[in-house]
Amino acid sequence: NTFSAGNAVTCTDCKPKEWAPPGSAACQLRPPCTADDYSPKHGKCKSTEKRTESFFLNNDLCSGGVTTPPDREVDCVPCPAGTFRDGNLCRFCPPGTASSAEKDTCEDCPTGTVAVRGF
């Protein structure tokens, strides 16, 4: 994060609230951060079928403006039929078991039937 003015031989650091694109002859003020500068990070799914969503700043060029949004609880994404939840992952049910899209647990197939994998 430096600039080089005129015929300078060395680069000069920008001040803390400034930045300079590559090849710049001067620094400029960092733009204020907006909500779009934050990305969500999801925690593991809990037994409540909820997970914590926290946010982190993904733009090191902005300064001030919108502050980091607070953490919040959000729904876990349901696993598709034939799978079960293992932490944040959906895994295939073991042979001889199946699950519906409404359930995240595998149950034994009735006697004389088998589960057919497919999407």
Automatic annotation (TrEMBL):
UniProt cross-references to InterPro entries, sorted A to Z: Elapor1/2 (IPR039181), Growth_fac_rcpt_cys_sf (IPR009030)
Any Gene Ontology CC annotation: membrane
Native source species: Eutreptiella gymnastica
Source organism superkingdom: Eukaryota
Annotated Gene3D superfamilies: Tumor Necrosis Factor Receptor, subunit A, domain 2
Matches recorded under SUPFAM superfamilies: Growth factor receptor domain
PANTHER family to which the protein is assigned, alphabetical: MRH DOMAIN-CONTAINING PROTEIN (PTHR22727:SF15), PROTEIN CBG13728 (PTHR22727)
Protein name: Tyrosine-protein kinase ephrin type A/B receptor-like domain-containing protein
